Amino acid sequence: MPISFNDIPANWKMPLYWVEVDPSKAGSLTLRQPALLMGYKLATGTAPADVPVAIGSLSAAQQYAGVGSMLDGMAQTFFENSKSQEVWMLPIAEPATGVAATGPITVASPPTQAGTIYVYIAGRRVPVHIDAEDTTAIVATSIAEAITADPSMPVTSAVAADVVTLTARHKGTDGNDITIAVNYGGSLAGETMPEGLLINVGTGRLAGGTGIPDLTAAITALGDEIYEYVAFPWTDSTSLDAIDMEYGFTDGGRWGWMRELYGHVFSAKRDTYSNLMTWGPDNNSGVISVMAMEPTMPSPSWSVAAAYAAKAGRALINDPARPLQTLELNGILGAPKHERFLLSECNNLASVGLATQGIGPNDVPMIRRETTTYQLNLYSQPDDAYELVTTLATLAALLRRQKHAITTKFPRHKLADDGTRFGPGQAIVTPKIIKAELVAQYRQDEFEGLVENAKAFKDNLIVERDTANPNRVNVLYPPDLVNQLRIFAVLAQFRLQYDRGFDQSVL
Question: What CA–CA distance (Å, rounded) separates 257 from 152?
Fold first, then answer.
């Protein structure tokens, strides 16, 4: 009986018609690619710390993590950028020994006319009505009450005389990233200061926050579930090392050979150009992309990370090989025009492993270049193998397609040498059969725009039986990943008039 059955036994004698169903030639790859928001929760959140929980709406995120929590802000931004993705959150407890950041808003002089001011806390716009007769203390009280009226504010406010003191809702260094501004939109947005009123916001940011998260239990709780696009709010070296160990290329990493889960981590860091140029070379991970932020960008880094992860995930699910440039980061406020990174500065930041953003024509920040922090090979030599997010995203798609093809079509097959004569229908494969399957899959991948140069791939593809283990096949898989149109360079070699030459037709 040459045909290999899986279920119908060879010794079955009862009549007449018996069928087993084999889906190995019919199925196609279906894949969940959930996003994961990692961030601090508040004590009011009902979800336990360090345990992933699925969220289908903003209200669910607020219930699980607490209104006004870091995860509340991240969820708001994520859903503003992508509403259809499967999303989970991983609530983290604030650092037990940390200190919450604080910052003052001081009303230095009273108004002489009525109006409305707009206070921005972490990019959240709060209108405050001002009467001409208000004293500095009344203005301060009005500001504090308006801030408190927004339950999703990442700060609490207290007022004493003419000073409003803001305190981050969570402990930790991240509270130092909360910005304070008044009338950020300027006169073009109808935001002007009433005559006489003077408000001082100090450095424009909260300060004094200390403490970083302990991610050990949270990362362990991820298990072997797929979380493809991670919004990661922390950029201290301890936290980045922890998430890189989970998602990297070691034996226990998600990109390692044992787990084959893959995934990408998106973060953001606020600092001066000079400091970012110093910070960038200290990092080197192909699975982490950190977006550079100007010091005066109103939105907090965790919201930028959430917007980046949402837009990147939404695009890469559709096509992992297309560049992410020009994708808008909705819900994010850009730095004032005169304080934005120059194009030349963005170019230099990209050279030290930082993703960059710029302002689009509608004044919304957008992705410029989705650079990862990877810069050096194992010998600390400059290397661009994993420089761009799209490289590993494309490779993950190819490997998953290949794994699906092999495991679906050859799940319980025997292995024989090329040239072995066996009956049709036998569950037997040879190196040539496997190579043909890999070439066929590659041509399908080429048709779908993930790879190129199929002939070169076939010429360099090696499939062979292991010389020491007769039950093992070794494959050298050499895909040529498709590239992206990122630079269109033109030499405009102009002339004032082309040389007409000598017209032979007049002779």
Answer: 42
